């Protein structure tokens, strides 16, 4: 009998759904297979040279190796405020309305801890980015998921939930451009959110991780640009995606000062702030690399077109995203009826050497979908489509050889 009794907050977490896939990717790579990785939204392009140079220069300065401030250095918070003003016309007080986080995921989780407790409920859009649900669960809160696909319906579902649930939900989590579904909204959506938040006493967290990655002239709006938003909520942004700095772990939370203060209090106990050299290099990135961030979106747009064209040529019907780093792809029949999303993804990996994320990794609403990320280059994406096609042809032949008959509806 083990003496180790792990806390319930750990044991009540579900098994990590991507574990099986990650293990197979590892085993295949160890065996020398070339796996095309369309699973995680983990950028593969490097940050700008000048940012890396600044990091190296700052790392050589002995003054930068001490503990830093847990809410971030003042110049970086000022730069984040300047970006919000330039891009969204939002004025922020860098002292009380901006905080630096060790990646936006860390900030988000600790914000949940700062806002939620036993008996509190959060509304989360589904399918969901896992930390949107488990950040709340780890803070002992409850979650109600509402479908994100139709934004008008999502708003009316929020109102209905607030009218009918007792005690009322306390927190509304938003994420646009949405991961995994790539749903986007316009500013008017956030105007309505602010009205609902004020009417029902909801606090809002907007996860704006894909703020910098958008296509075809679309500009993702900021929640904070809606009138009164700062009275009811905060917004997280990150340097992981548009700036290709995912491994650096640098993100920001901006907006309502009471919520930021609560996050700062928690962070003050948990961490000593980010390596100062990273913060200094991040200032350079924010100040001088706008053009590169835009160029990166153009690169993702090219990859999106390559992948969606390839899938369409196979007879699939891709959801062509306007922003973000993913194609949220419905699995076509007969495969959708034949096997679970997880088994389908495992088959593509095992037989086709293409790793994708099964939609069920984003909750039950993701069943029947695959999330394919745009982190590989266009040649590799073309190769991925060829592999998928070949893999499905072989599986179909096997299916037929076994004497399985597929009806129109895809049911054997
Ligand atoms: C919606 C969303 N939020 C947050 C994150 C995490 O970002 P960060 O690297 O800033 O922690 C991701 C990363 O995949 C994401 O997709």
From TrEMBL:
Keyword RNA-binding found: no
E.C. numbers: 2.6.1.2
Keyword Transferase (UniProt): yes
Cofactor requirements of the protein: pyridoxal 5'-phosphate
Keywords linked to the UniProt accession: Aminotransferase, Pyruvate, Transferase
UniProt source species: Aeoliella mucimassa
One Pfam family, short name: Aminotran_1_2
PANTHER family: AMINO ACID AMINOTRANSFERASE, GLUTAMATE-PYRUVATE AMINOTRANSFERASE ALAC
GO molecular function: L-alanine:2-oxoglutarate aminotransferase activity; pyridoxal phosphate binding
InterPro entries: Aminotransferase_I/II_large, LL-DAP_aminotransferase, PyrdxlP-dep_Trfase, PyrdxlP-dep_Trfase_major, PyrdxlP-dep_Trfase_small
Name by which UniProt lists this protein: Glutamate-pyruvate aminotransferase AlaC
CDD domains: AAT_like (cd00609)
Domain of life: Bacteria
Aminotransferase class I/classII large domain ranges (all copies): 34-388
């Amino acid at each position: 009998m083990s003496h180790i009794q792990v806390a319930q907050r750990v044991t009540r977490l579900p098994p990590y759904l991507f574990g099986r896939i990650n293990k197979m990717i590892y085993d295949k790579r160890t065996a020398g297979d070339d796996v095309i990785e369309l699973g995680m939204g983990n950028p593969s392009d490097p940050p700008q040279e000048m940012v890396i140079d600044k990091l190296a220069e700052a790392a050589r300065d002995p003054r930068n190796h001490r503990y830093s401030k847990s809410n971030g250095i003042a110049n970086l918070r000022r730069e984040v405020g300047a970006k919000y003003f330039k891009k969204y016309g939002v004025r922020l007080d860098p002292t009380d309305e901006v905080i630096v986080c060790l990646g936006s995921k860390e900030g988000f989780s600790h914000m949940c801890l700062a806002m939620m407790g036993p008996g509190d409920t959060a509304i989360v859009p589904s399918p969901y980015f896992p930390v949107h649900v488990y950040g709340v669960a780890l803070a002992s809160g409850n979650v109600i998921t509402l479908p994100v696909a139709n934004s008008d319906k999502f708003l009316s579902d929020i109102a209905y939930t607030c009218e009918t649930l007792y005690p009322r939900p306390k927190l509304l989590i938003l994420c646009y451009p949405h991961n995994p579904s790539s749903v986007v909204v316009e500013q008017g959506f956030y105007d309505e959110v602010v009205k609902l938040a004020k009417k029902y006493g909801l606090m809002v967290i907007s996860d704006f991780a894909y703020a910098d990655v958008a296509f075809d002239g679309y500009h993702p709006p900021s929640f904070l640009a809606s009138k009164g938003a700062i009275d009811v909520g905060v917004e997280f942004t990150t340097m992981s995606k548009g700036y290709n700095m995912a491994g650096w772990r640098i993100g920001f939370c901006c907006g309502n000062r009471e919520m930021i203060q609560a996050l700062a209090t928690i962070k003050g106990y948990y961490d000593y702030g980010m390596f100062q050299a990273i913060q200094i290099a991040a200032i350079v990135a924010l100040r001088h690399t706008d053009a590169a961030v835009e160029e990166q979106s153009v690169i993702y747009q090219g990859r999106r077109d390559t992948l969606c064209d390839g899938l369409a040529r196979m007879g699939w019907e891709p959801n062509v995203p306007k922003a973000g780093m993913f194609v949220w792809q419905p699995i076509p029949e007969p495969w959708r009826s034949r096997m679970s999303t997880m088994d389908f993804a495992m088959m593509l990996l095992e037989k086709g050497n293409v790793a994708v994320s099964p939609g069920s990794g984003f909750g039950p609403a993701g069943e029947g979908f695959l999330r394919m990320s745009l982190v590989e280059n266009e040649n590799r994406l073309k190769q991925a489509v060829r592999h998928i096609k070949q893999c499905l042809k072989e599986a179909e032949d096997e299916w037929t050889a076994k004497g399985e008959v597929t009806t129109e509806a895809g049911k054997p």
